[in-house]
Amino acid sequence: MKLTLMKIGAKWCGPCEALARKGTLEKFAALHPEVKVEVHDDSEEGGNKTWEKLADKWNIKGVPVLIWVAGGEELFRSFDVSAKSIEAQYAKALKRAGL
Questions:
Q1: For 8-24, how does the pLDDT look when each residue is reduced to its tens digit (9 = 90+)?
Q2: What is the C-alpha separation between 79 and 30, in angstroms, rounded?
Q3: In the chain, where does DSSP find H-type helix?
Q4: How far apart are CA 90 and CA 96, in angstroms?
Q5: Total-model pTM
Q6: Counting CB atoms within 10 angstroms of each CB, which of 40, 43, 45, 81 has the fewest?
């Protein structure tokens, strides 16, 4: 079973843009190639309709949000997008997924 880290954000979201500028998720992905990292926002292909479907599916109430998934099931989510927190979340996700 592979872990997936989904970041759901929006181009109008200041913290989402700061996260992108710092390259936090890219750095995490480079350190942990065993984790699939997905970034979704309202500027991706399909625009707002695609983003709205995703937001509905995962019951998104605020952005940015990180959702840790294993086997298609949500393990947990976090609104803390700091690099230090993401590493702690990774350890928590491994434990919850039994990996």
A1: 998 888 998 888 889 99
A2: 21
A3: 14-22, 24-31, 47-57, 83-97
A4: 10
A5: 0.90
A6: 45
